[in-house]
Amino acid sequence: MRYLDMLTRLGIGSAHPGGFAATLTQFERYPLPAGGRILEVGCGTGRTACYLARLGYRVTGLDLRSEMLGKAAKRSAAEQLDIEWVEGSITALPFAADSFDVILAESVTNFAPIPDALGEYYRVLRAGGKLYDREVIALPHMPEPSRQDLSEFFGFDRLYTEDGWLEALAATRFARYEILERSLFDEHLGEDQIKHPDLQQITDGSAFLDPALWEISLRHDELIQQHQTELGYALICAVKG
Ligand SMILES: C[S@@+](CC[C@H](N)C(=O)[O-])C[C@H]1O[C@@H](n2cnc3c(N)ncnc32)[C@H](O)[C@@H]1O
């Protein structure tokens, strides 16, 4: 079992640094354009997409994993929300060019070759459209072997530093880009679940009986503790000219 298998089986609703609290703060600080067409890539179980649809946005959620999308579809059905769920990869988005006003990513782009994903985000955004991407980053002093260990555990294609992200953004044709926020890594999923419980979380019935799941969970906590002074996250924003 790998990290993403664990998230899928548990049906974790806000599996990104800062959790749902960070998502809510982001939308307060950086409001999305009213009536805009939003693509949430790597939408997982669809919690953020459903939140936005409830606010009246037109939302499409895309993910590579059909099991994630199955849970997302149950969530939107339970909330009677009209959301288009699409199976696909961020490296080959199944949408026409210039389709979306906003692309949201919450701990997703790291899982694929980042330059390829950025190129696809650029292509499907409309002129003036914005990418908001919250990702785990390596702080500059993280040694290469640690970057490799963490990438291997999470299943990242590669763990970039902030400078690595800025270089990748510069190499894409975005008119402007910046790091809006940066912080030490703080997942605090347990605390987030208490403050913002996910009432539509769907956990596979047998998940907690599988020792492999507990092993991954423990390894996750160990790795985060071991690298806590070297791991961060960034909220990246890029605008298509
Ligand atoms: C860490 S989870 C985050 C899920 C969701 N954004 C959230 O915050 O709960 C990463 C998600 O990215 C998806 N993913 C990984 N690689 C992908 C790819 N190449 N294209 C689309 N989705 C991908 C996974 O299936 C998973 O749902």
Structure description:
It contains 9 helices and 7 strands, in the order H-H-E-H-E-H-E-E-H-E-H-H-E-H-H-E. The mean pLDDT is 95. The longest helix is centred in the C-terminal third of the chain and has 16 residues. 39% of the residues lie in helices and 22% in strands. It is an alpha/beta fold. Strands 3-2-1-4-5-7-6 form a 7-stranded mixed beta sheet, with helices on both faces. It has a single domain, classed as Rossmann fold.
Instruction: Estimate percent helicity.
Output: 25-40%
CATH class placement:
Alpha Beta
- pLDDT below 50 for ≥5 consecutive residues: which ranges? none
Largest sheet, order of strands side by side?
3-2-1-4-5-7-6
Q: What's the number of structural domains?
A: 1
In round numbers, the mean pLDDT is: 95
Bound molecules: S-adenosylmethionine
Elements, N to C (H/E): HHEHEHEEHEHHEHHE
Number of strands: 7
Determine the CATH superfamily: Vaccinia Virus protein VP39
What is the CATH architecture annotation?
3-Layer(aba) Sandwich
Main sheet summary = 7 strands, mixed
Which structural class do the helices and strands define? Answer: alpha/beta
CATH fold assignment: Rossmann fold
Number of helices: 9
Shape: globular
> What is the rounded Rg?
17 Å
Q: Which band does the percent of strand residues land in?
A: 15-25%
Could you tell me how far the N terminus lies from the C terminus, measured between alpha carbons in angstroms?
Answer: 42 Å
